Structure formats: structure tokens, C-alpha cells
Amino acid sequence: MKRMVYKRIIYKKRIFLMLLIGMLCIVPIKAKASNADKWQKEWDSLCDGMEQDAKKLLEKEITSEKEDISSEEKSTTIKSFDVSNAIPMWTLYSDLTMISDYHKNNNDFSKLIKWDNRWYIPAETMTDTYASILLQREKDGYHIYGQYFDEDDNYIADNASEIKEKIKKELPDTEIEHVMNVSVPFYKISLIYIKQSDGEEMVIPYQADGADTLDNIGEKSGTMYSVSKFISDMENVYQEYTEEELNKTVQKNKEEMTLGGALEPKKKVSQVKEKNTVNSAKYIIFATGIAIIAVFGVIVYIKKVK
After folding, report:
1. In whole angstroms, what is the distance from residue 226 CA to residue 108 CA?
2. Which residues contact 175 (CB under 8 A, 6 or more apart)?
3. Strands 141-148, 176-184: parallel, antiparallel or unpaired by DSSP?
4. Which of 8, 35, 118, 273 could bridge 89 with an S-S bond, Cβ 3.0-4.6 Å?
């Protein structure tokens, strides 16, 4: 009898130990999953704060319930929108001084970013084509700042779900603290900024149609890079304006009564010289080819005359 009781006690201890080991294995997994979802919860929280007011505005201002709409108008008439799948946008404190600001802040790109309370609302036209509504929060509430029916100045994705899938694909099983979609209009690019729990910073850059920023620095739209590499590549090609140069531009715009939209990214002298050298070489090759053809033509003509 005592032996049977003893066996039962051992059996119960084994079960308890197995359950304890199982719980210890499960807890870190759950914690990891929770951390991995932290940035998505942040997005959901921001969206919850925007959704109700945005819906009221869009339902009032954006409507497809019009009679006698022509076929041309249908392609630019929004019939539906999805506020719950909106893309939140952040900006830099100064995109003109992005490179120097990065170094001033101990190479911590997150300190350059500020919440802009700007949203791209995915929408659909009456011809079932993609559209986007730009929403911006001001002191008196949200305002519609634009409707786009092809490409907008976001460049990243059509909706938030696409970005979430992109992050999961690029960084599976990675603990992520923050993900921010950052607009950098001076360079005509947008960035998906990612900060991992270990402090590692990554970025996925996208450039506007017709822009050449990423081409110039040797990077590709939609490809992930470390922030340090991205800044290094930018620094190798572009030279930021000095404070004196910026002040002169502001003063000139005041004198000429302009708003100052002409300031363009400035390439380093070595980059300009290299481009000019390549262009000169192309011109010389082209001119030499024309000269050879001309000489050959003269020779043929002389032979025919003789």
C-alpha cells in the first residue's frame, strides 16, 4: 500500500514538473509575440483616435451619390473609402538637415521624427480603380488636403495592411518597437522606419515617380537597409545647405516675394564633376562617330566623282 502511494506521489511530481517546464517555454513565446505586435497596437491606437472624426468628415465631403455622372467623371469620383486601413504618416523635424541631424543625435534616427497626424485613406472610384484621400489634423479638426487617383506623395503602399505584410516578410520573428512611415519631400522619398527591440534601426525607402534620389545613391525602392547605410549612401552623394545658404535663400525669397519652392537637393562637387565627365565622354564618342561617318562619306563621294 505504501509503495503504491509512493508511486502516485512520484507520478504527480512528474506531471507537475512537465507542466512547469511547459509553462516556462510558453511564457517567453507569448511575450515575444506581444512585443512583436507593439508597433501594430500603436497604429491601432492612433487609428482609433482618428476614425470617428474622419468618417464624419469624409461622409460629409466625399460622396458618390450624384446623378448624371459622365463616364469621365466616374474615374475621379470616389464611391467608398476604408478609414480602418488608413496609412499614418510622420515627418522629420527638418528634411533639409536630415543627414547632419542624424549625427547630432548620436546616430539615432528616431529622434529626427515627429508625429504629423496625417493620413492616407485608401479609397475606390466608381470605375473600381484605386484612389487615396489625404487627411491632415489641424487645431480645429481634420481637413481633406487632396484626392489622388493614380500616385500620391506617399509612394509606399495602398493601405496599412500592405505595410504590415511587408514588415512580417522582411523581419519575421523579430521584436519590433516602432514602425513609422516618414515623408521626406525635399528628397522626394518616403521611408518605412523600423526600430527593433535591440535598438537596431532599419529603413525601407521609396521614391516618387520621376525622382532619382535612390538611383543616385545606389539603392532600390522597397529594399530594406540599415539606417546607418542609408545615411552613409546619402552622405556620399548629397551635401546639405549651410545655415548661411538657407538664410540667404529665405532673404532672397522675401525680397522677390516668392514662397521658395525652388530649393533642390545639392550634390557634392565630386558627384557633379563625375557626371560632367561622363557626359563629356559621351559627347566626345558621339562627335567622333559623326566625324568618322562624315569622312567616310567624303571618301565615297570622291571615288564616285573619279
Report:
1. 12
2. 32, 35, 36, 196, 197, 198
3. unpaired
4. 118
Q: What residue has cell string 517555454?
A: 25
Domain spans of the chain, in order of start: 1-36, 37-237, 268-306
* Torsions phi, psi for 183 (to 5 deg): -90, 130
The model carries a pTM of 0.75
- Per-position pLDDT tens, the chain of length 306: 544 444 455 555 555 555 545 554 444 444 444 444 789 999 999 999 999 999 999 998 886 555 677 888 888 889 999 999 999 999 999 999 999 999 999 999 999 999 999 999 999 999 999 999 999 999 999 999 999 987 666 778 899 999 999 999 999 989 999 999 999 999 999 999 999 999 999 999 999 888 999 999 999 999 999 999 999 999 999 999 998 988 888 777 766 655 555 689 999 876 544 444 445 555 555 556 565 665 555 555 565 555
The 3-state secondary structure of the chain, one letter per residue: CHHHHHHHHHHHHHHHHHHHHHHHHHHHHHHHHHHHCHHHHHHHHHHHHHHHHHHHHHHHHCCCCCCCCCHHHHCCCEEEECHHHCEEEEEECCHHHHHHHHHHCCCCHHHHEEEEEEEEEEEEECCCCEEEEEEEEECCEEEEEEEECCCCCCCCCCCHHHHHHHHHHHCCCCCEEEEEEEEEHHHCEEEEEEEECCCCEEEEEEECCCCCHHHHHCCCCCCCEEHHHHHHHHHHHECCCCHHHHHHHHHHHHHHCCCCCCCCCCECHHHHHHHHHHHHHHHHHHHHHHHHHHHHHHHHHHHHHC
